[in-house]
Write a structure and sequence with these properties.
13 helices; LRR_dom_sf; 15-stranded parallel beta sheet; three-stranded parallel beta sheet; single chain
């Protein structure tokens, strides 16, 4: 069949291609990450449809200043600069100087030569609409000091790096210049003074970094930092991020926390150091979303019968009665007993979740290596899906982001189908991080196609 001369192939139609790659970029499909990165570089110049313009690969893509000038300034929103090539610094100055009013987001390393160029532009209010600034470090060399700069519309500031001590003054100046700051994310040893943004800051993410070279210390400085912003904070995420995947070992712990009257979302990614068990529930009266990397069943919810070697009763209620969204990364009970193994914890965990009367969303991360899906389904029988839950998500992933649950159902796929049938009260049921067998997925999809809308949305990943 001959093609119409006026028609375009899907591979040459700019509108179709733009939509496809925008979707891939938004959903961060890992397989297409390289393609998306290239698209971010050429899209704005070639098709005029992309809102992201990467400056990281100018030397590889042979982009010229003339090509940059052809970019539609109305579409250029973000610049990402991490190079040390002086020719590229010229391009950075060219873009930020000529169309600075359109730029809303910049990613830059404060150790790069372009850092001084950025400070110079900010000093003259050359980026009046800059809303997000991401700063990183890769060297322990001190950065040059500077005074207050124009960041009146900056709402999001991210700071990352092991070597933040030598840049403390610069980073503090940035925070002090951002009068409208709403979101602050810090990954590294930095405890800033947040007094200037205490009334505007809504989201705070603070992660210490730990490895053999960079030890985590001075955690006592976390309390005064939180005290400054606790009256207005709505989202808080705390944790310790090991540089390597072998975890971290820290002797120091934090048990003092101020009240957070407006806090709605709290993520604790280092429960053994930042001890959630010591928190007072009355300090979190508005909390509705809670994520814990360690859910302590025995200490928080059970007393233990040492004679019969089993839990005997729950403590009444739960420490956060208003929580509707709960995410659990790991489970912990009395050590040295079979009950503490993760597969055996699951039934008790789901029983306990029934005591959280307002709970609507439950995410459980299974970090155990090679856990059979049949054991998870057996544990899920303890889950009261009619208790008010609307979404349940089972995630099989370890700290290396590897799948941890394998499909062992074989001829017992009906077990999964039976569980789905009993979940008619749910709106969404998700299994992710599972090594699925094709026949299992086919059987489940065929079953769902026949039953229609009477069952929850089921996602198998």
């Amino acid at each position: 069949m001959g093609a119409d001369a006026n028609s375009q192939s899907v591979f040459t139609n700019p509108i179709i291609l733009s939509n496809i790659f925008s979707y891939l970029d938004i959903h961060r499909v890992q397989t297409f990450r390289t393609v998306s990165s290239t698209w971010n570089t050429i899209g704005a110049a070639v098709l005029g449809t992309r809102k992201v313009f990467s400056m990281r690969r100018f030397s590889r893509n042979s982009a010229t200043a003339d090509e940059i000038q052809n970019v539609n300034p109305a579409l250029l929103k973000r610049i990402c600069f991490q190079s040390e090539f002086h020719t590229e610094i010229t391009l950075f100055k060219c873009v930020t100087t000529n169309i600075g009013r359109q730029i809303k987001e910049i990613h830059i390393c404060i150790n790069s030569p372009a850092w001084l160029a950025l400070i110079e532009i900010l000093s003259t209010n050359g980026l009046p609409n800059l809303g997000k600034l991401v700063l990183s470090t890769y060297s322990d060399l001190p950065a040059p000091a500077f005074g207050l700069v124009a960041l009146g519309n900056l709402e999001v500031l991210e700071i990352r790096g092991n070597n933040l001590e030598n840049a403390n003054n610069d980073l503090q100046t940035m925070i002090g210049s951002a009068a409208s700051l709403k979101t602050l994310k810090i990954h590294g040893p930095f405890f800033p003074d947040l007094q200037n943004c205490a009334k505007t800051l809504k989201t705070l993410e603070w992660f210490a970094l730990s490895d053999e070279q960079y030890s985590v210390d001075n955690l006592d400085q976390l309390h005064p930092l939180l005290t400054q912003v606790s009256p207005t904070l709505e989202k808080l995420c705390l944790g310790i991020c090991p540089v390597q995947f072998n975890g971290f070992s820290i002797q120091q712990s934090v048990t003092r926390f101020p009240p957070f009257p407006k806090l709605k979302s709290f993520k604790n990614m280092a429960s053994e150091v930042l001890k959630v068990g010591e928190y007072l529930p009355e300090n979190f009266p508005s909390l509705v979303s809670l994520s814990l990397d360690l859910f302590d069943l025995s200490r928080e919810h059970h007393s233990w019968d040492v004679h019969h070697d089993q839990p005997v009763k729950r403590r009444p209620g739960n420490p956060f009665p208003n929580v509707t969204h709960l995410t659990i990364m790991r489970m912990k009970v009395a050590s040295g007993l079979d009950y503490c193994r993760e597969p055996n914890c699951l039934p008790h965990l789901f029983e306990i979740c029934a005591t959280w009367k307002l709970l609507t969303h439950l995410d459980v991360v299974i970090g155990t290596q090679a856990l059979p899906l049949s054991k998870i389904l057996k544990a899920l029988k303890s889950l009261d899906t009619g208790s008010g839950l609307s979404e349940v998500r089972i995630v099989g992933v370890d700290n290396k982001l590897q799948k941890t649950v394998f499909d062992d159902l074989a001829s017992d796929v009906e077990k999964l189908i039976d569980f789905i049938t009993k979940c008619h009260a749910l709106k969404r049921l998700t299994f992710t991080g599972i090594w699925w067998k094709p026949e299992t997925v086919v059987r489940v999809m065929e079953f769902l196609a026949k039953r229609g809308s009477t069952l929850p949305v089921v996602i198998l990943e």
